[in-house]
Amino acid sequence: MNHKLTVFSLVIASLGMMACYANETTPSKQSSSNATAQQTNLASNASHRIEQTYQIEKMAQFNEPWAMSSLPNGKLLVTERKGTLRLFDPATKKLTRIEGVPTVAYGGQGGLGDVVVHPDFAQNRWVYLSYAEKGQGGTGAVVVRAELDLSQAKKPQLRNIKRIWEQVPKVEGEGHYSHRILFDDQGKLWISSGERQQFTPAQDMKSNLGKIVRLNADGTPVQDNPFYQQGGVTAQIWSLGHRNPLGLAFDANKQLWVVEMGPKGGDELNRVEKGANYGYPQVSNGDHYDGKPIPDHATRPEFKAPEIHWTPVISPSSLMIYQGNQFPQWKNKALISGLSSKAIVVVDIESQPVQEVQRLDLGKRIRAVQQAQDGSIWVLEDEAGAHLLKLTPKT
Ligand SMILES: [Ca+2]
């Protein structure tokens, strides 16, 4: 009898969570079949859900921000897509424009992209920026290294700008640059390079589009890269078959993870392995926007499948794996910012299978999420008038 009672309670609890979840989803453009799929996903996950509480403070406002990075002193570098780099001081909430940013190709999904700080910034003052540029054949992303001169507080500027990487080849169109940048604890530089909406380059080893690349801090390929002996841009490649990978992060075990936008359906969180092929455009758990089907991952086991995928999509725009202490329930979990989902999606990457455990419904397209030095969390909204938000534990 006790057993029956427990089962009955679980069913009621699951139904309650399903209903609760439906209320959290974005109201528009949700077809009933999609809603059913989502409820099915969440119903199976119901027992794993967490409810980490938080509070939100609006800190500043930006125009189409894309990325942010903390300096060792706690100030924040923030890029805006039209080509502006700003320095934000959380203590005074003052914003200062940084001079000397190269001209960017703004349009479509392109413009000024990511900004990261070299691990030895305190000594070398190096920051790295990615952006779209025009050139022969169309557009492509580049990464530059620059010295950030903060000696004049009112006129910070970039000096000694050196181009260290570019997408090959440049192509027509203004989408899927991806161009997220990340340093690992060995000082190696990782770049996510999207397939530029051209599909087949993701499988072409003579192109670095649709790849995750691994470089030395000066932009040269690393000697123990899986295809180093083949030379050219092939030497840069760490993994292939990616579509529009917009988030890169290492977990506590130094495992690299990447989130990428799927086509119509099939957003992915992938565990990135040396030399692995993630299958795009041969396989995807989504289909082409024109309705043409793409075989699912299960049909081609030679390609590495995502650890978790989403249909309906969440539109993942960045990834962090929380290592702080202010939000105990998020420790070692992936936080994925979402555009169409207007949310931060929390994923348990240690569980088998990997699963979504919480969704922070923020009501705005979210462009980036990043951990601050003190363990609080910076969140950047998307588009014009976007806020920089600070997430702290609920008091
Ligand atoms: Ca498919």
Automatic annotation (TrEMBL):
SUPFAM superfamilies the UniProt entry points to: Soluble quinoprotein glucose dehydrogenase
First and last residue of the signal peptide: 1-22
InterPro entries: 6-blade_b-propeller_TolB-like (IPR011042), Glc/Sorbosone_DH (IPR012938), Quinoprot_gluc/sorb_DH_b-prop (IPR011041)
Entry superkingdom: Bacteria
Annotated Glucose/Sorbosone dehydrogenase domain residues: 62-389
UniProtKB keywords: Signal
PANTHER family per record: ALDOSE SUGAR DEHYDROGENASE YLII, HEDGEHOG-INTERACTING PROTEIN
Protein name: PQQ-dependent sugar dehydrogenase
Native source species: Acinetobacter lanii
